[in-house]
Specification:
GO terms for molecular function: nucleic acid binding. By secondary structure, the protein is of the alpha/beta class. The protein is built from eleven helices and nine strands. Strands 7-6-5-8-9 form a five-stranded mixed β-sheet, sandwiched between helices.
């Protein structure tokens, strides 16, 4: 994990050349005693914070760490000038997950003062998250859970696109979600015509998981086609549709679409096979 953030010699260089850490780092490295209160007076807040944690500091492989007594683990001390780099790289590597999950990952390995405040600020300023994640908004009316009565009772489908052309020429993605287990799969497509969607649904879903009782979609032309209607009739699948211009009617699929779009914008997680 975080290969670019894992080179000990690099971190030792960062700590040695950071004015907030270098004094404490040199003393720990050379085995010198803790500075007195008068010696630390007037120093930066970061250095005074490290001074207060003196008993928990250790130099491991040439890099200054802080011993987390609660987790019984050593956490690498990040110089202030490298905080944004750590937050950004972890946030991107883990697929632009939210602030809390990104923070939890970093807390396992790294430490710096006011870590929480830096995470709130850096994650809030992520342009990709701002473009793909919807802000939390209070519902206008009380919502009700859509009843499902077991696996494959209800399956939702939707098409994303057109997207920037991928390596194999695909411009669309078919998203299929099973409502009971929340299992979802996404399939790249060259087009969003009815034969393409129907064939993918039969070969990639029905052939592996069986026929659902209900198939739910919006009123796109491909989903309203005679071909898909006939397939549903032959397989005894009850075809339902959402209200026009009301994506909340198929909310689970729409939420999955946003997640897939987040992955697609992340060059680390997007599949090269698309």
């Amino acid at each position: 994990m975080l290969s670019t953030l894992s080179v000990g010699a690099t971190w030792a260089h960062y700590q040695l050349n950071d004015p907030n850490i270098s004094n404490i780092y040199r003393r720990q490295l050379d085995g010198n005693p803790k500075p007195t209160g008068s010696e630390i007076e007037g120093r930066s807040p970061v250095e005074r914070c490290l001074w207060s944690q003196w008993a928990n500091l250790r130099v491991i492989d040439g890099v200054l760490h802080l011993f987390d007594r609660a987790k019984r683990a050593y956490r690498l001390i990040v110089p202030p000038g490298k905080v944004s780099k750590v937050v950004r790289e972890v946030h991107v590597e883990f697929g632009h997950v939210g602030q809390r999950r990104t923070e939890a990952v970093v807390r396992q390995r790294f430490w710096w003062p006011k870590l929480y405040d830096d995470f709130v600020r850096n994650c809030a300023n992520c342009n990709i998250c701002a473009q793909t994640k919807s802000p939390a908004v209070a519902p206008k009316t009380p919502l009700q859970t859509v009843a499902t009565f077991g696996q494959d009772h209800r399956v939702g489908v939707d098409v994303m696109g057109p997207l920037p052309t991928l390596r194999r020429g695909n411009k669309y993605i078919l998203v299929i979600v099973e409502y009971f287990t929340k299992w979802c799969e996404a399939f790249p497509m060259l087009n969003h015509e009815a034969p393409t969607i129907t064939l993918l649904f039969l070969n990639e879903w029905v052939a592996r998981f069986g026929t659902p009782i209900e198939l739910r979609s919006d009123q796109g032309a491909a989903f309203e086609s005679r071909l898909l209607e006939e397939i549903c009739r032959m397989l005894r699948i009850h075809k339902t549709r959402t209200t026009p211009y009301h994506p909340q009617s198929n909310g689970l699929v729409e939420r999955t679409n946003r997640t897939v779009m987040t992955w697609g914008r992340n060059p680390v997680t997007v599949s090269l096979s698309l």
